[in-house]
Amino acid sequence: MDKKKVAVPLVCHGHSRPVVDLFYSPITPDGFFLISASKDSHPMLRNGETGDWIGTFEGHKGAVWSSCLDNNALRAASASADFSAKLWDALTGDVLHSFEHKHIVRACAFSEDTKLLITGGFEKILRVFDLNRLDAPPTEVDKSPGSIRTLTWLHSDQTILTSCTDIGGVRLWDVRSGKIVQTLETKSPVTSAEVSQDGRYITTADGSSVKFWDANHFGLVKSYDMPCNIESASLEPKSGEKFVAGGEDMWVRMFDFYTGEEIGCNKGHHGPVHCVRFSPTGESYASGSEDGTIRIWQTTPNHSVDEVAKKIEGFHINKEGKTADKLSDA
C-alpha cells in the first residue's frame, strides 16, 4: 500500500477574530506578499511564500471585511465596518488617507494601473477614488441592485465586476457609462469572485456551486456542485488545471478543473473557511477561517506521513530565530 501523502500547512497566527478575506500581490522584485482582513479590525501583511508576519495596519475601529495591495505592493487598502476605507503605505504602515462612507464598506480594489481605488458596501453605491487627488470627491457609479459583497476590475480597468450580499448573480459594469452591461446569473448570492491571472476566467462561488465563466464573452464554461456550501474558490494561476474551494465544512479541497474530480482534501481549520486564494506562483495557496488562522498549503504535497512524523520528531525550536520587524508606527 502506498504511503499516503499529507499536506502540512504553514499556520499563521496573529488575528484574534475570524479571517474573512485574503489577497496576494503579484510577484514584485522583493517577492510576493499576502494581506489578510479580519473582524479584529487589524489587517496584517505577510511574506506570501513563508507566511512570516511583516506588520499590522492599525487604525480601523470596526471589522475589516476586505483588504488588498497594489501591483507593486507599495500601498494597501482596506474596507471596514467603521464606515470607512483606508489607503495605507505598505512599507511604513502609515495611513495615507481615510475615505469616509455613510455605511459599512464591504469591498475595495485597486485598478490595474494602481491610479484608482473602488469601494462598495451597504450603501449599494460603487465609488471610484482618484489616488492622485485624494481629496477630490469620488466618481459614483449607478446604484447597485443590492448591498455590495465583492468587487474587482477587469478588461484593463474598463469593466468592474460586483456581486451582492442578498441577491444572486455577478454584474459587469462599464466604467465609462456607469451602467450594468452584463449579468452572470446564479441561483444563490455570489460570496467570492476572482479574475484569473491570465484574464481568461472569472471564478465564482455561490451556495454549493463553483462556476467558471469566460471573462471576455461571459459564457458559462464549467459548473461544479460541491460537497457543502462553499464560500470561496480560486483557480491555479499557471496551468489552470486545478482549483481550490473552502466553506462551511472546515476543509479546503482541491479539484481538477476539467472534470471537477476531487484530488485533494486538507483538514486543519477549526471553523468554516471564509476565503481561499492561490499564490501568484501557483505553488501554494492560502485559506482563512472563522478560527482566526491563515494556513498556507503547498499545491503538491511532497511528504509522506512517515516523513512528516520524522521531521516533527526531529524538530527543535530555534530560540535564536529572528522574527519579522513590525511595521514602524503601524
UniProtKB/TrEMBL annotation:
* Alphabetized GO MF terms: RNA binding
For this protein, the record's Gene3D superfamilies field holds: YVTN repeat-like/Quinoprotein amine dehydrogenase
Q: Repeat: present as a keyword of the record?
A: yes
- WD repeats: from-to residues: 57-98, 266-307
Q: Any one cellular component term from GO for this entry?
A: SMN complex
- What does the entry give for GO biological process? spliceosomal snRNP assembly
| One Pfam short name | WD40
Name recorded for this polypeptide: Serine-threonine kinase receptor-associated protein
Native species: Brassica cretica
